[in-house]
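Forwarding these from the shared drive since the link keeps breaking.
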Amino acid sequence: MPGVPDLSVPPSGVSCSGCGAELQCADGGAPGFMPAEKYRSLLSEGAAGLRGAVCQRCWALAHYGRALRLQLPPDEHRRVVSEALRRPPRHGRGPLLLYVLDVLELPDPVLPQVPALLGPGVPASGVLVVGNKVDLLPADAPGHLGRLRKRVAEACARAGLAGAALVDIRLVSAKTGFGMEGLVSRLHRSWKCAGDVYLLGATNSGKSTLFNTLLRSDYCKSRAPDIVDRATVSPWPGTTLNLLKFPVINPTCDRIFRRQERLKEEATKTEDELSSEEKKYLNHLKKQGYLVGRVGRTFQRQKASPVVEFDPDMLSYSMDEDPKHSPKKREQREEFTHNEVKDARWCFDTPGIVKEDCVLNLLTEKEVKLVLPTVAIVPRTFILKPGTTLFLAALGRIDYLQGEKSAWFSVVASNLLPVHVTTLSNADAIYEKHAGRELLKVPMGGEERMKEFPPLVPQDITLKGIGTTEAVADIKLSSAGWVAVTAHAEEELLLRAYTPKGTALVVREPPLLPYISSIRGSRIAGTAAYRTKKPPSLVENLKTTGSR
């Protein structure tokens, strides 16, 4: 249960090192809450006692994957971001905005809000759009990253971001490091150290993960990773609640030269030449994503990263009791010197902008963890006849109502979400019987859970096939995933797609991965399903063995 509050104790003036909220023990439903007993024990050591501590919410996210509900409406998120952007330029030049876009969410529902955030009174110098999570998507054909970048550029243009306002578009994986060295080089080359940088993006776009990766890169001052605490990373939307920051390094000619020499040297290595520790970490990343990169540091000796982000002795308590004071002596924390920060440019992480009409807003934290993909997505393809229905858990449904021939339906969603195919005549009965139960899995909780869950509402869709190797469109079932539809040339299909009431259903034309149906094995006899096939992972800037 949440810890005990104490209304008599004023806020600390010290930020949580996980989310940036001001630490306090008066309101258990507000950001920055820490149980009163723990708060007082740390405060007794002076201001330094609270520095580096995390609030109860960040602790629960890091150790339990559990999100404590907060009374923080979407307007509050926007207010914090808007106020930050309207600060007067500190160095004679407005900030650069790094907008982090989840490529799986295209068309990004928050991107059209960015021009409004850049309205009158905002001295921003431009937007660099970072398409994140490319590691989760398989290469459906050669040139797939170029097509993805084109889709991102089209989304930017529709949102009103073009011309001088759009500095660049970069595709990365903040989690596996793919594209990150290129992003750092782009920032050094074009932005240098001209002004502050703000990370913006929708909740769950991977913004805090990008912040953490940049913190461990050549974009950050060399001592900063030892001093700055990382942002809390969790699948629950809206994790970062206030502004966290790190100082940006000044890319002098000497530093740029040394960095380029390091990158050249690393690009000549093969996997066999890596240390056993590097190989182990690389193999771990290969299991996580299709695209992998190595993010190094030129200006600091590499240190072993701790497995646990937060010191368990600083905040070790069970979810059923208040934290107990630890007798362990706290280590002396390093601090920046005055000269290190007096003229510093900073990279700020901001609160995620809440996505409206999103299915994730209807789910519990346990359900969110099943719905949001965190490892490489393995596409699942089915060949369906007219009169067939496909369920994606109990969060989406597609009925194939009319058509002359069979068509291919490729599901791109979390590997943990079940797909169930049945006849159209049985579909309603299947949903009534199994929604909330193991067969459809999400939502979970049986009849009681489904009583409060919105009903599925239909939308009719007409598509015309363009050939048996290329999908005509994606049917995006809010943030639960999408289904790419491939049909014979000129074949007309009448479909009916369903998502929970109040969530967005989008027909994406052209599709994000048009050749996705080719990533499949043989047909499973007696079923509509094909065997799945997972393409190999690609490691950036690493020679393949024997290529010398």
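-- next protein --
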Amino acid sequence: MELKLLTTADVTPPLSVIAVSKLAGASLIVESTLTSASPPVLVLPNGLKLRGTNVILRYLGRTTTTIPSLYQGDAFEIGQIDEWLDYAPIFSSGSEYEGACKYVDGYLLQRTFLVGHSLSIADMAVWSYLAGAGKRWESLMKSKKYQNLVRWYNMISSEHAAVLDEITATYTKKKDLGKSISTKTKESEQHNNKQIVNGNVNESGKAASRPEVDLPYAEMGKVCLRFAPEPSGYLHIGHSKAALMNQYFAQRYNGKVIVRFDDTNPSKESSEFVDNLLIDIKTLGINYEKVTYTSDYFPQLMEMAEKLMREGKAYIDDTPREQMQKERMDGIDSKCRNNNLDENIKLWKEMIAGSERGLQCCLRGKLDMQDPNKSLRDPVYYRCNPMPHHRIGSKYKIYPTYDFACPFVDSIEGITHALRSSEYHDRNAQYYRIQEDMGLRKVHIYEFSRLNMVYTLLSKRKLLWFVQNGKVDGWDDARFPTVQGIVRRGLQIEALIQFILEQGASKNLNLMEWDKLWNINKKIIDPVCPRHTAVVEEGRVLLTLLDGPEHPFVRIIPKHKKYEGAGEKATTFTKKIWIEQTDAKSISANEEITLMDWGNAIIKDIKKGLDGTVTELTGVLHLQGSVKTTKLKLTWLPEINELVPLTLVEFGYLITKKKVEEDEDFVDVVNAETKKEIAAVGDSNMRNLKLGDILQLERKGYFRCDAPFVRPSKPIVLYAIPDGRQTATK
């Protein structure tokens, strides 16, 4: 059987697929023809295609005749194999690598294979990740730290040496297992980088390799998912994970994504939020089939509510809210639970009319008031709300709850898998029960962990407090964790996508550091962003070079010494130049320094004021001097009228605590000082900066242009971009 494996050119082919295909006796041709971020594709002899590492492994395991045990066994053993396939990618995570080794080492204490008593694709998946870990795994083997794991690894390697030795020789270096032997030239690496011409990203960057995750019960070409934000705020980094996970699975299974606005609470929602959510979804690069609204289904939802009342599966309740909450906690039936249909319909009509009597009522599902899972204790399905809706005005006075509307619309719209963060785990049973009572097709729920960031609030209610109380300038404020906020801060979307997809669909709750995200961002912008020079305005010092040029002259030099695409800039050389006060204070008399992009100079005289600040410097050029011998390499600007005024803006976290607990009032930990503005002057080339341009100020860091040059009296505003080392900033 001849098979073809399609992979991306910049990622090593999945060793597990190659190994299992060899063990299965299949003839496999590997072609690097896919675009970045695409999962591997197996092309069968009849032209049919399978996508994703684990999907391919299962196919190979089922069809092999050489080693029947690869994907066989009873239902429990097959389930175990699937669990190990999902677990194996943890070995590709640097921070969790040793923990995974420790876990599997303990698991293998009294076992020969991971599942049952023979080799399976579970063994080959884990073996391949270890083989691909390079020197890290090699050093652990030598350390004798995980003897059971090493025993198991060596057993597989020796028993199938003919196949596995060939694979490691072909796809890995002998001295560094798992590292591709192909090397990229600097030219090709530069070509693959995300390019920023004049500060703007205009080409897709190289996607980082990441572990693949399977979607249970998924059928190729039939997967339909939905991203369903509530239009009560802007999209933030937590929502981004949900959106990108939906797109990931849709692409993996050749399916589709529907964007649905869950607009069931007119008190919080607005068209402004809808419009900006669509902007944010576009920014993330989400490809969706169509946009729908829960409000499109209001008539059908009302019909379903009436149907459930007639079937005795729902009732109208006028119990006061606080008492109702207490009764639910205590498992006490409402006094209205056994009202007859006529009474329920009568009160339902009062709710529809929005009458005074109707406003006292709500519709509840009749589920199970004694269930240990309290979400099943007769949840609320409908409430009155006289507020006009942002789309349909005052047509309705009643609105369905999320708990009621979501399972209905998911099923009606043909959603196959509903992705939800694991914080809703206890409500999954409610979701399935409501669909069952409605008599609708079951939708599979797939959980992933919510993305939480240090020193960050992601509750839209809490973020709204900052907006309404003037603590930030709006939802796109650079201190906000919204997509528009972090992009305004200088984050490249490719960095956000890479950061989120590297985590995969893990169900582990983690508090993530911003530094990791900003470090990824730095690796994208540093190779290509143009370099400029700025000098802080306060206390800047004039250095007179006694033998400097009598008449200013200009040289054209590259904006980035290693990347021609950044363009060129004009640098003026003058007899008098500006340097910063902090630099001036660090210079000693007769010290030789290096003036960046010019050469060496010797400082002959230093004048200071009574307070110790440097007021004037005098020196001579020493261009024949070696830059290797100087301690100080200083940035400078010429004394010319063409310098441009700058405002450099640095930001801090909005709160002073890494994690705010549920019972804490976040207002108590609001940071009083979160924004710092520094006046500076910049080189004349910065007049050409455009809004959104990314640049590096030499010796200061990375910045994004938030307000370009308009006139000399109006400073250019540059937002500081964290580089992954600054723990004090977001």
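Residues 173-211 have pLDDT under 50 and may be disordered. The CA atoms of residues 54 and 85 lie 7 Å apart.

- D.
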